[in-house]
Amino acid sequence: MPEGFSATEVGKEIGQHAREHGHAQRHARLISIVEAVLLSVVTITAAW
């Protein structure tokens, strides 16, 4: 009996991982955008 995953099992695992962690990646990206906007506002305010 061979050990490890078959190509089909690996594909299923990758798909499941992407579904489970897709929301976290979108949340992290949103946080990065908010941080950039906030930094821009602070920079403009300080320059004024």
Structural class assignment = mainly alpha
Tally of distinct domains? 1
Q: Could you report the average pLDDT, rounded to the nearest whole number? A: 83
The tally of strands reads: 0
Number of helices, counting only DSSP H or I runs of 4 residues or more: 1
Question: H/E element string?
Answer: H
What fraction, in percent, of the residue positions are helical?
over 70%
Q: Which outline best applies? A: rod-shaped
Main sheet properties:
none
What does this structure look like?
The protein is mainly alpha-helical and 48 residues long. The chain has one domain (1-48). It contains one helix and no strands. The radius of gyration is 21 Å and the shape is rod-shaped. The model has no long low-confidence stretch (mean pLDDT 83).
Summarize the structure.
This protein is mainly alpha-helical and 48 residues long. The chain has one helix at residues 7-47.
List the SSEs and their pairings.
Blueprint: H1 7-47
Highlighted features:
rod-shaped, mainly alpha
